TrEMBL record:
Alphabetical list of InterPro entries matching this protein: Glutamic_endopeptidase (IPR053168), Neprosin (IPR004314), Neprosin_propep (IPR025521)
Pfam families associated with the record: Neprosin, Neprosin_AP
Species, as recorded: Camelina sativa (False flax)
Source domain of life: Eukaryota
Region (Disordered) residue spans: 143-165
Protein name: Uncharacterized protein LOC104712604 isoform X1
Length: 470
């Protein structure tokens, strides 16, 4: 295009040397701005200048003309290649904008369900936004069987409960260390963001665990080191759980330490109630250990979720935010911190209550959420779990517990202590006949014991990938 314009001008008119210089400038203009070129590039002079045109043309040798033509060819070629590349990229991305818009629309619809109107908002030092939401507007009351209801009154604490068991320093939560708290009649809820949901491998399964066929199956990369009791009817469990910050090496892996109350089979009808601490970069976007809850009534397929990300768990406490970061954490050869958790079934109404720390009731899972757990549990587990995605074809380096094996003991390995279960009479008793199981003991192991101060306890965990765990 530039070449044709130049040749047309040369054959008709010229305004001496400056006119030809302007034509050179014209050829260097950006292709996309060609319509805005200086009018001098296409100016047609009168016939009176034809004589001077000839003399000027002779003045500018054929070498100058070659230079002009070369500049025009380079300009045109560059413009053409740029346009071709741009069109190719646009063609490749034709479908992407629609897909992204649809995904964002779905995310915003989900956020409207999860995030409720806040009476007060608190900014945490770890980057979390904590919304103080009216108790009766929390996600639990979106459930058809809870709509229009209010939280239940506190139940009877199991007999045999003693605060003397909490002899080590309790961990708290980062958001509340500033002294801020939610007002009466509200509960603190960690706000879910678009970024949280964009990290998820599936928007529709955001806040849910990966489905598994069996607890001890590693087909989906889940590995455990747990102590467990089975063979009786269980109405709750209690333990103090050492808090660490194990390394998690992939966004889609996690490391957690928790209590499970289980009923049903490990197939389609598995019922679980779970609580503890976890590190999950996918769910939270960082590597802080966070207090969490979970439940399912169909083996993680369609029911249940983490924390308050679906209707289910009813929170009653205004000082504890489920999903918030725990602080302080234990350090190797340094100070040790733990959290005490108690889960038990209210004998009067049948709901499963959760207590955090020294007497703070967090809330409850309504009995109607479950099938088998409407009556009682058939197994209780305590311990750690990680996800192993086998990066590069080898075992993950994601750590469990402190990242050190059980044999290193106190101050180095992570522990569970004062393991107890709740019996049919709503009484806390020692978790006797505790069995130990490590799916891959060369990667993560477990060792138990009993003493007068800690009752039933165990150390557990490990580094993951190592010479004996390739």
């Amino acid at each position: 295009m530039c070449l044709m314009g130049l040749l047309g001008d040369v054959s008709v008119t010229s305004r001496r040397r400056t006119t030809i210089q302007n034509r050179i400038k014209c050829c260097l203009f950006d292709h996309s701005r060609r319509k805005q070129q200086d009018s001098r590039c296409f100016h047609h002079s009168s016939s009176s200048h034809q004589a001077s045109f000839k003399s000027d043309t002779m003045f500018f040798s054929s070498n100058v003309l070659r230079l002009i033509l070369l500049l025009c060819l380079v300009s045109s070629s560059f413009s053409l290649s740029t346009a071709t590349s741009s069109n190719s990229t646009s063609a490749e991305q034709t479908l992407r904008p629609q897909e992204e818009l649809q995904k964002l629309k779905l995310i915003r619809e989900e956020l409207l369900k999860i995030n409720k109107p806040a009476v007060k908002t608190i900014q945490s030092s770890d980057g979390d936004t904590i919304d103080c939401v009216s108790t009766h507007q929390q996600p639990a009351f979106d459930h058809p069987l809870l709509q229009g209801q209010r939280p239940m009154d506190p139940p009877e604490i199991p007999k045999g409960y003693s605060k003397e068991d909490e002899s080590y320093e309790d961990s708290s939560q980062l958001w509340s260390l500033s002294g801020e708290s939610c007002p009466e009649g509200t509960i603190p809820i960690r706000r879910t963001t678009e970024q949280d949901m964009l990290r998820a491998s599936s928007v529709r399964r955001f806040g849910r665990k990966i489905r598994r066929v069996r607890r001890d199956s590693t087909s989906n990369g889940h590995e455990h080191a747990v102590g467990y009791v089975s063979g009786r009817q269980y109405y709750g469990a209690k333990a103090s759980i050492n808090v660490w910050s194990p390394r998690v090496t992939s966004q889609y892996e996690f490391s957690l330490s928790q209590i499970w109350v289980i009923a049903g089979s490990f197939t389609h009808d598995l019922n679980t109630i779970e609580a503890g601490w976890q590190i999950s970069p996918e769910l939270y976007g960082d590597t802080y250990p966070r207090f969490f809850t979970y439940w399912t009534s169909d083996a993680y397929r369609t029911t249940g979720c983490y924390n308050l990300l679906c209707s289910g768990f009813v929170q009653t406490n205004r000082r504890i935010a489920i999903g918030a970061a725990i602080s302080p954490r234990s350090s190797y050869r340094g100070r040790q911190f733990d959290i005490s958790l108690l889960i038990w079934k209210d004998p009067k109404h049948g709901h499963w209550w959760l207590q955090f720390g020294s007497g703070a009731l967090v809330g409850y899972w309504p009995a109607f959420l479950f099938t088998h757990l409407k009556q009682h549990g058939s197994m209780v587990q305590f311990g750690g779990e990680i996800v192993n995605n086998r990066p590069g074809g080898s075992h993950t380096s994601t750590q469990m517990g402190s990242g050190h094996f059980a044999g290193e003991g106190f101050g180095k390995a992570s522990y569970f202590r004062n393991l107890q279960i709740v019996d049919w009479d709503n009484t806390l008793i020692p978790a006797s006949n505790l069995k130990m199981l490590a799916d891959h003991p060369n990667c993560y192991d477990i060792r138990g014991g009993t003493n007068r101060v800690w009752g039933n306890y165990f150390y557990y965990g490990g580094p993951g990938k190592n010479p004996r765990c390739p």
